[in-house]
């Protein structure tokens, strides 16, 4: 398929895994740290992949051996034109501008969560601050044994505001642990991340983690794309609503979606003992 080119990301389609897209943060010389142009580009990528009929699952990793991402590029953000730079505006007007900026930043990272297709994050090496925001917006997280996670914002005088404090407690279900790592800014490694349920799997190296994520994404991509999109949508909805509300939404959703030809294709393949094939979305 024809792929737009991006300045700070590589987007590829591994030939051995049909319908899988691999998004790679590509600023390794700066430890894949983000500045505004990058998060706007990230949003554009995931909004495009969300509706692409040739994509059924996505993995997100970082280029280079040292970092998934070191988080926000504080130097860029503190420049005169940056998010944290000086401003001649009075405090109220500056606050309004800052609010709009934060909302835009949040929306860009939330594009991962709102993407129709499942997203698997592959963390390795330095994975700080914004790395956690990105990871908890994804559906599945894997990492390499050398990963160094931290909710780092308290160390630069901020409360994390791009999704970590909202999503991380729901991901791990351990509010006390989340408060500890968010209030101290301490690092935690692969074993602890797996123990609390922050990551699904730990691999020996970055290369093994990427290969494992691609294998998992490939398995998802072989399922009915209608069923996969619906499963992600219903799980995310039910996470944020009561059981009764989740059941009601599922009823409405499946009233339409169970009419797909994918159900018949899946049932026939089981009877005929063959792998099913499904149309593009």
UniProtKB/TrEMBL annotation:
Coiled coil regions in record: none
Q: Where in the cell is it found?
A: Peroxisome
Q: In which pathway does it act?
A: Lipid metabolism; fatty acid beta-oxidation
Q: Name one GO cellular component term.
A: mitochondrion
Q: Where is the signal peptide?
A: none
Q: Name one GO biological process term.
A: fatty acid beta-oxidation
What the entry lists under InterPro entries is as follows: ClpP/crotonase-like_dom_sf, Ech1-like, Enoyl-CoA_hydra/iso, Enoyl-CoA_hydra_C
Which keywords annotate this record?
Answer: Acetylation, Fatty acid metabolism, Isomerase, Lipid metabolism, Peroxisome
Classification via Pfam families: ECH_1 (PF00378)
Family recorded in the similarity comment: Belongs to the enoyl-CoA hydratase/isomerase family.
**Which protein, by its recorded name, is this?**
ClpP/crotonase
Q: What is the lineage of its organism?
A: Eukaryota, Fungi, Dikarya, Ascomycota, Pezizomycotina
């Amino acid at each position: 398929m024809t792929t737009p080119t991006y300045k700070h990301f590589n987007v590829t389609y591994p030939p051995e895994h049909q319908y899988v897209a691999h998004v790679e943060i590509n600023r390794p010389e700066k430890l894949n740290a983000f500045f505004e142009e990058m998060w706007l580009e990230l949003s554009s990528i995931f909004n495009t992949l969300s509706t692409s009929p040739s994509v059924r699952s996505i993995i997100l990793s970082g280029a280079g051996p040292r970092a998934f991402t070191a988080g926000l590029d504080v130097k860029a953000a503190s420049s005169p034109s940056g998010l944290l730079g000086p401003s001649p505006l009075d405090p109220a007007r500056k606050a309004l501008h800052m609010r709009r900026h934060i909302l835009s930043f949040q929306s860009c990272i939330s594009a991962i969560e709102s993407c129709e297709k499942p997203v698997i994050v592959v963390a390795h090496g330095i994975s700080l601050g914004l790395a956690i925001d990105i990871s908890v917006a994804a559906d599945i997280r894997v990492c390499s044994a050398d990963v160094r996670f931290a909710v780092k914002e308290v160390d630069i005088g901020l409360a994390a505001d791009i999704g970590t404090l909202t999503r991380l407690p729901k991901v791990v279900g351990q509010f006390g642990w989340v408060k500890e790592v968010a209030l101290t800014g301490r690092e935690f490694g692969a074993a602890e991340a797996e123990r609390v349920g922050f990551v699904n799997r730990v691999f020996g190296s970055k290369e093994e983690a990427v290969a494992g994520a691609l294998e998992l994404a490939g398995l998802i991509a072989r399922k009915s794309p209608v069923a996969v999109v619906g499963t992600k949508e219903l799980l995310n909805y039910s996470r944020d609503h009561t059981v009764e509300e989740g059941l009601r939404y599922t009823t409405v959703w499946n009233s339409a979606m169970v009419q797909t030809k994918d159900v018949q294709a899946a049932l026939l393949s089981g009877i005929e003992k063959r792998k099913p094939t499904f149309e593009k979305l």
